[in-house]
Specification:
This protein is of the alpha+beta class. 37% of the residues lie in helices and 25% in strands. It contains ten helices and nine strands. Strands 1, 2, 3, 4, 5, 6, 7, 8 and 9 form a nine-stranded antiparallel sheet that branches. Helix 2 packs across helix 3.
């Protein structure tokens, strides 16, 4: 898998002055576009679109200092429709405008080419199983919240605290299958997984029962799920579990992620410092 990802990285380099198409990159990496975007963000620490933008502006910076092309030629060459749009993007990355950089020879920032390699870390193992589930519904309450990579998410905390205890108890009583009990569900997440992008957060249960009036429902198709177990400091261990699944498990497994909600069943200790968790990720086998 890592070899195919690196072929996709070479593909990006050859198309920085043209069109970088995520679907084409996914074909080079021999995976789905959905999984490629997710895996890239997890491994690179930034969305694919941001990496491409930084690489283009790195090359553009070198051309600005070189002086052989006009600034407008450089802008068009790197996909900007106007000199103004290029100048804004250039300043956002390099801290100076292209004209100023050319006149004064200002120091610029660079995004190095990325490649991926396998690093063996630690001696801990990842506990997982693959489960086939029939169609079901996530039943509960939903809110649109920003994505937070580290620490507690204030928007989620406020949303959960605002739920009527009677409604929460009514929701929990509808749980009738794995993962049992109240769960935290992320859906309609931006493929970039960038900090601050929005997602639908569901506070609910997994159920096959008829949805009662007054509650929200997310209907989920049948399919396989990879289930990961972990425990540790709260919330760091839970957030780290997502990262480890995409940076360690997927590159070495016969599965890839598929579109669908991600379900977290967490049991937080009474003192709020540690938690035990199950993370459910919708998956499919990688075609032979």
């Amino acid at each position: 898998m890592l070899e195919r990802l690196n072929e996709a990285m070479e593909h990006i380099e050859r198309r920085l002055t043209g069109t970088v198409d995520a679907a084409e990159l996914a074909r080079v990496a021999m995976t789905s576009e959905h999984h490629f975007r997710r895996l890239f963000s997890a491994l690179a620490g930034m969305p694919l679109s941001e990496y491409v933008r930084r690489r283009r502006l790195t090359l553009a910076g070198a051309e600005v200092l070189d002086g052989r092309r006009t600034l407008l030629e450089i802008a068009v060459r790197h996909g900007y429709g106007s000199g103004e749009a290029f100048a804004r993007a250039f300043r956002a990355m390099h801290g100076v405008g292209p004209g100023e950089a050319r006149r004064e020879g200002a120091p610029l920032r660079a995004q190095p080419r990325m490649s991926f390699r396998l690093v063996v870390e630690g001696s801990s193992s990842m506990r997982y199983r693959v489960v086939e589930k029939d169609a079901f519904a996530v039943v509960g309450r939903v809110a649109r919240v920003p994505l937070v990579h580290e620490g507690l998410n204030p928007a989620i905390t406020e949303f959960v605290r605002g739920l009527d205890p009677a409604v929460a108890a009514r929701i929990e009583a509808l749980s009738d299958q794995e993962p049992r009990g109240l769960v935290h569900v992320s859906a309609d997440v931006d493929d970039s997984r960038a900090e601050g992008t929005e997602l639908d957060y569901w506070h609910g249960v997994v159920s096959g029962a008829e949805v009662p009036e007054g509650l929200d429902a997310l209907h989920v198709e049948a399919g396989p799920w990879a289930v990961f177990e972990d425990s540790g400091p709260f919330p760091e261990a839970l957030q780290g579990l997502w990262r480890d699944v995409f940076t360690q498990w997927f590159p070495a497994s016969a599965y890839r992620s598929r579109p669908g909600p991600e379900i977290l069943r967490a049991r937080v200790a009474a003192d709020g410092t540690t938690a035990e968790a199950e993370l459910w990720i919708p998956v499919e086998r990688v075609p032979d």
